[in-house]
């Protein structure tokens, strides 16, 4: 289970301390670099307009139970949940109209943020398919080595999802979008008291990571089954 940084420290760790750079293609003699926002440009999360961020949701919006997952793309426990638990959860509860499931990104590091930008790049319709690819390949792309190598591995995932290189690079270097996502995450995490990943908010109540058996027991109780 990954532990969270306090909101203030998180902001400094992610968008402070100078600019970040995404390398445009490995092996290039002259790399193209695009700075992401530094601390001097960062606003307090509460002051950032996050209304343009799309909630990534599966299932019937009118389902009797709402589940929100908070997860990081670089969290091994989150990968385990998505490769071992989520499929059954989706089949038994989301696809049957019992649960509305929303995925919200948590940011520990720049690599998780890059993965988030890739996942959101192709739009809402393809988001969960890309999430699946990211988690299945987590042990490969997250351990690729250098920043350039990790970025290239994430680009490969984007291309597998049908995106072109120009589209992928535009998403990876969208500093305004990144700053807004960080603020959005901080607002949500504060509201729900998120301290670790994965965490789940079930009808407003926050839970830590759990097995499918424990998850289904909670859902069945709320569904009156």
Automatic annotation (TrEMBL):
This is Thiol-disulfide oxidoreductase. InterPro entries: Thioredoxin-like_fold (IPR012336), Thioredoxin-like_sf (IPR036249), Thioredoxin_domain (IPR013766). Pfam families: Thioredoxin_4 (PF13462). Keywords: Disulfide bond, Oxidoreductase, Redox-active center, Signal. The keyword Signal applies. May be required for disulfide bond formation in some proteins. Signal peptide: none annotated. One of its GO terms (molecular function) is oxidoreductase activity. Residues 35-187 form the Thioredoxin domain. Belongs to the thioredoxin family. DsbA subfamily.
């Amino acid at each position: 289970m990954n532990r969270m940084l306090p909101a203030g420290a998180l902001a400094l760790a992610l968008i402070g301390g100078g600019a970040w750079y995404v390398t445009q293609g490995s092996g290039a003699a002259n790399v193209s670099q695009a700075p992401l926002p530094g601390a001097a440009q960062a606003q307090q999360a509460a002051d950032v307009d996050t209304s343009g961020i799309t909630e990534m949701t599966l299932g019937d919006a009118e389902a009797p139970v709402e589940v929100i997952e908070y997860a990081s793309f670089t969290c091994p426990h989150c990968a385990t949940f998505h490769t071992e638990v989520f499929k059954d959860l989706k089949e038994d509860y989301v696809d049957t109209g019992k649960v509305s499931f929303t995925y919200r990104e948590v940011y520990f590091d720049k690599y998780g943020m890059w993965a988030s930008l890739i996942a959101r790049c192709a739009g809402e319709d393809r988001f969960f398919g890309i999430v699946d690819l990211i988690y299945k390949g987590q042990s490969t792309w997250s351990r690729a080595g250098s920043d350039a190598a990790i970025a290239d591995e994430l680009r490969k995932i984007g291309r597998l999802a049908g995106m072109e290189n120009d589209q992928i690079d535009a998403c990876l270097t969208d500093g305004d979008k990144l700053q807004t996502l960080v603020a959005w995450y901080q607002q949500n995490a504060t509201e729900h008291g998120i301290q670790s990943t994965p965490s789940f908010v079930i009808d407003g109540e926050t839970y830590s990571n759990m097995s499918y058996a424990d998850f289904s027991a909670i859902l069945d109780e709320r569904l009156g089954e």
